[in-house]
C-alpha cells in the first residue's frame, strides 16, 4: 500500500510512553507504528525524516475565546480580537491540532442552540485546526436547560461553562445547582469560573474610593482568597448533586489548588485547569509604567513567583488535569473595544474595572511549557493534549497515536535544532492581536511541523502556514472518558 505520509526515525512521545517508532498515515488516520527506521523506504507520498525529533499527539487547547462579545465587561460592545480564522491560524503555528472555544449565549438570548448556530456560521470554512464548541451559559432558563439533551446527542457538544463572577454572567448558587443537575443527567461536563464576583465588585469600589484606578489594582481587587472561596463553594455544590464532575478552569492560586487536591483525595471527581499566565507571568507584570500593565490583565490575575512554583508542582502531581491557554485577546491600541477603552483625559492610566479581561496565548502555550522543561515529556503530552481529549470526549480519536483509531494529528519538535534562544516577539506570532504578554521571553524550541489528519499545516522552516483555511473541521464530542481526577499517586 502507498501511505499518504510516513514519519521515520523520530521518538514518539505519548502520555504513557517514550519510544522510537516510525509512523505511517493513510486517509487521515495513523495506520501503523513500526520499529524506528523500518519505514524509511516505505512507499509514501511524503516522508518526513524526524531524526533527533520528538513526535507527539498534536496540542489540544480546550479553552479559547474567539470572536466573542466582551459581555464580561460592563457596557462594552467589543469583541475578543481573534476570529476563528486568525485564532486557529495562531493555534496551529504553536503546535495545536484541535481547539475547543465558546459558543456564547448572548444577552437576552434564551436558546443555547441559537448560540451554537451563530458560532457555526463564524467558524465554518475558516479554521486551520479541528474545533469544537463549549456552550457559555449566562442564563440558565428552563428552555436552555432542556436543550442540554440536544446539545449532547445531536450537536456533539459535551461541555458548558458557567461563571461565579462578571455581572452579566454570574450565576447564583441555586442556578449553579440547576446547571449541575441537568449536566449530570446528560453527561455534560461543567466548567466553572470560580471567583467570588460580589466580593471583587465590593473590593473594586473600595479601591476606586481610594483613588486606585491603575491596571495593577486589578490584582488587588482579586486576592487569592476570593478564588479559593469560590473554588471551595463550587466543590461543595458539586457534592450536593451526587458528586457530579466539574472542571475548575484557570486556577492561579495555590490555596485553591490545595482545596481541589483535598477533594480529589476524598474521591470527588474534581478536575482542574491552569494556564501559562500562572506559570510565566506575575503580578509585577501588571505594575508597569502608564497603562502597559493592562497587557497582562486577565482573571484570575497572575500571582507571585512562589505561587508559580506551586502551580508547576500541581501540574507535576496531577492536581491539574489540563494546561490550556484561555486565549482571550483584546487589542491594546483599540480605543473602542480593546484594552485602551478605559483610558481618557480623566483617567490617564485607565480604570482597571473596565479593562477587558483576557490575554492572547494560544500560540505560545506549548513552546513556553516545552522550553521550560519542568515536566517530564509524557506529563507534558498528558496535560497539553491527552487529558484534554479525555475530559472533553475526544479520546482516543484525538490526543493519542493509536493505529487504526487516532486521527493523524501530530506535532514534531526537534530539540536539537539549537534554535538557541528565540526571543518571543509579537511580529513572529500569527494571531490578530497587537501585542503578546510574553514579548522578550526566551524559549529554546518551537514546533517544526504541525500535522492535522495527515496534512502538514505548519512547516516552520518550509513556509510557515502551508495549508489553506478551512482544513479544520468541526468535531462532535462524546462524554468524558472515565478518568481519575488524580492520575498518579
Ligand atoms: O481574563 C480572562 N480569563 N478572560 C477570559 C474570560 C474567562 O473568564 O475565561
Ligand atoms: Zn432569559
Ligand atoms: Zn473564565
Ligand atoms: Zn476563558
Automatic annotation (TrEMBL):
Keywords for this protein: Phosphoprotein
UniProt cross-references to InterPro entries, sorted A to Z: Amidohydro-rel, Hydantoinase/dihydroPyrase, Metal-dep_hydrolase_composite, Metal_Hydrolase, Metallo-dep_Hydrolases_sf
Alphabetized GO MF terms: hydrolase activity, acting on carbon-nitrogen (but not peptide) bonds
Post-translational modification: Carbamylation allows a single lysine to coordinate two divalent metal cations.
Gene Ontology CC, one term: cytoplasm
Entry keyword Phosphoprotein: yes
Keyword Ribonucleoprotein part of the UniProt annotation: no
Residues with the N6-carboxylysine modification: 161
Start and end residues of each Amidohydrolase-related domain: 54-457
Similarity field: Belongs to the metallo-dependent hydrolases superfamily. Hydantoinase/dihydropyrimidinase family.
NCBIfam families recorded: D-hydantoinase
Xref: PANTHER family: AMIDOHYDROLASE-RELATED DOMAIN-CONTAINING PROTEIN, HYDRANTOINASE/DIHYDROPYRIMIDINASE FAMILY MEMBER
Name listed for the protein in its UniProt record: D-hydantoinase
Species of provenance: Stachybotrys elegans
Amino acid at each position: 500500500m502507498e501511505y499518504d505520509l510516513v514519519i521515520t526515525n523520530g521518538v514518539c512521545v505519548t502520555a504513557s510512553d517514550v519510544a522510537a517508532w516510525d509512523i505511517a498515515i493513510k486517509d487521515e488516520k495513523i495506520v501503523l507504528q513500526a520499529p524506528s527506521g523500518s519505514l524509511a523506504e516505505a512507499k509514501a507520498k511524503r516522508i518526513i525524516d524526524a531524526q533527533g525529533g520528538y513526535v507527539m499527539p498534536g496540542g489540544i487547547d480546550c479553552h479559547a475565546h474567539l470572536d466573542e462579545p466582551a459581555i464580561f465587561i460592563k457596557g462594552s460592545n467589543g469583541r475578543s480580537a481573534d476570529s476563528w480564522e486568525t485564532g486557529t491560524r495562531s493555534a496551529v503555528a504553536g503546535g495545536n491540532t484541535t481547539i475547543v472555544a465558546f459558543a456564547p449565549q448572548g444577552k437576552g438570548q434564551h436558546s443555547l442552540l441559537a448560540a451554537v448556530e451563530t458560532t457555526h456560521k463564524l467558524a465554518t470554512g475558516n479554521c486551520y485546526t479541528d474545533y469544537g464548541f463549549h456552550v457559555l451559559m449566562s442564563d440558565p432558563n428552563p428552555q436552555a436547560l432542556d436543550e442540554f439533551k440536544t446539545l449532547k446527542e445531536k450537536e456533539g457538544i459535551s461541555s458548558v461553562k458557567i461563571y461565579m463572577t462578571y455581572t452579566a454572567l454570574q450565576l447564583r448558587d441555586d442556578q449553579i445547582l440547576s446547571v449541575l443537575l441537568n449536566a449530570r443527567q446528560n453527561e455534560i461536563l461543567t466548567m466553572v469560573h470560580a471567583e467570588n464576583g460580589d466580593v471583587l465588585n465590593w473590593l473594586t469600589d473600595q479601591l476606586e474610593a481610594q483613588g486606585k484606578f491603575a491596571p495593577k489594582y486589578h490584582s488587588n481587587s482579586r486576592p487569592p482568597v476570593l478564588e479559593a472561596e469560590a473554588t471551595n463553594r463550587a466543590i461543595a455544590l458539586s457534592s450536593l448533586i451526587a458528586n457530579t464532575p466539574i472542571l475548575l478552569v484557570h486556577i492561579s492560586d495555590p490555596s485553591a489548588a490545595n482545596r481541589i487536591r483535598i477533594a480529589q483525595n476524598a474521591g470527588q471527581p474534581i478536575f482542574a485547569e491552569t494556564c501559562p499566565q500562572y506559570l510565566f507571568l506575575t503580578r509585577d507584570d501588571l505594575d508597569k509604567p502608564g497603562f502597559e500593565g493592562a497587557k497582562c490583565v486577565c482573571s484570575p490575575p497572575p500571582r507571585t513567583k512562589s505561587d508559580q512554583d506551586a502551580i508547576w508542582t500541581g501540574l507535576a502531581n496531577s492536581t491539574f488535569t489540563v494546561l490550556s491557554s484561555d486565549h482571550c485577546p483584546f487589542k491594546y491600541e483599540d480605543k473602542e473595544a480593546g484594552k485602551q477603552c478605559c483610558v481618557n483625559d480623566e483617567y490617564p492610566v485607565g480604570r482597571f474595572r473596565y479593562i477587558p479581561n483576557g490575554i492572547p496565548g494560544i500560540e505560545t502555550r506549548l513552546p513556553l511549557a516545552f522550553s521550560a522543561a519542568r515536566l517530564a515529556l509524557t506529563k507534558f503530552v498528558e496535560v497539553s493534549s491527552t487529558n484534554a481529549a479525555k475530559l472533553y470526549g475526544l479520546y482516543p480519536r484525538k490526543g493519542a497515536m493509536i493505529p487504526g483509531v487516532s486521527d493523524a494529528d501530530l506535532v514534531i519538535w526537534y530539540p536539537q535544532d539549537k534554535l538557541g534562544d528565540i526571543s518571543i516577539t509579537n511580529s513572529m506570532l500569527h494571531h490578530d492581536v497587537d501585542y503578546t504578554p510574553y514579548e522578550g521571553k526566551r524559549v529554546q524550541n518551537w514546533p517544526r511541523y504541525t500535522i492535522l489528519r495527515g496534512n502538514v499545516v505548519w512547516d516552520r522552516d518550509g513556509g510557515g502556514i502551508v495549508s489553506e483555511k478551512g482544513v479544520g473541521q468541526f468535531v462532535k464530542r462524546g462524554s468524558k472518558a472515565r478518568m481519575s481526577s488524580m492520575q498518579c499517586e
